[in-house]
Amino acid sequence: MLLTIDVGNTNTVLGIFEGDELIRSWRVKTDPRTTADELWLQYHALVAGYEVTGLSICSTVPATLRELRTMIATYFSKIPTTIVEPGIKTGVPLLVDNPKEIGADRIVNTLAAHTLYGGPAIVVDFGTSTNLDVVSPKGEFLGGALAPGIEISVDALAARAAQLRKVELIRPKSVIGKNTVEALQSGTIFGFAGQVDGLVDRIVAELAQSYEGAPTVIATGGLAPLIIGVAETIDEHEPDLTLIGLRLIHERNI
């Protein structure tokens, strides 16, 4: 069985694949201070009962990736391992000014989106940041847009505004909030949905100059459920997009 590990700035998502099927997944917090031995203890406890025969990893946290390499060398040295980094076959041409700047997760999502939905496509990844990644009909990564994520925006507002506080992130009954909590929920949920719709509309207009057909807009990431059903431009919701991409890249490199 293949163990896929997507290390994000806030959370780490793990998934177990049996062939093409994702049979189990977990979400844990990411702590850059966690050592290789602590990572092994945590992951080993989660996957107990599954026979791990391969590993596929992407990380946007350098400190955690360093410890993951140590963990692999110590505890998984005999297991085929793929780490998404320069030199790995991804099948995703990066049509940007500096390919080395592109996060591994964005490359992985591009491959998975094109494999599942074809192109053109737009991946909206709701995580620590909100990433909009644009995929050509040939599966090329064309670039995109990055914006502050939902949770860090709420945290920043609560920290900088004396009379405002963190609230439960749920869709309020009305856009016009009748109290501070509802007003904050409205501004957050409807505000971020409007941001996504506005960016998608502009990206679609630019894509129309070069490609035929409307792009498929795919939402993923831990915070995507907050915006699904509110943003009007999202076509598909694939919560396991990055894990699927990690499986596909592993298959290209073993």
TrEMBL record:
Biological process terms in GO annotation: coenzyme A biosynthetic process
Record localization: Cytoplasm
Broad class of the protein's primary localization: cytoplasm
Matches recorded under Pfam families: Pan_kinase
Cofactors: K(+)
Transmembrane domains' residue ranges: none
Keyword Ribosomal protein found: no
Any one Gene Ontology cellular component term annotated for this protein: cytoplasm
Keyword terms: ATP-binding, Coenzyme A biosynthesis, Cytoplasm, Kinase, Nucleotide-binding, Potassium, Transferase
Single GO MF annotation: pantothenate kinase activity
Family: Belongs to the type III pantothenate kinase family.
SUBUNIT field: Homodimer.
PANTHER family: TYPE III PANTOTHENATE KINASE
Protein known as: Type III pantothenate kinase
Lineage per the UniProt record: unclassified sequences, metagenomes, ecological metagenomes
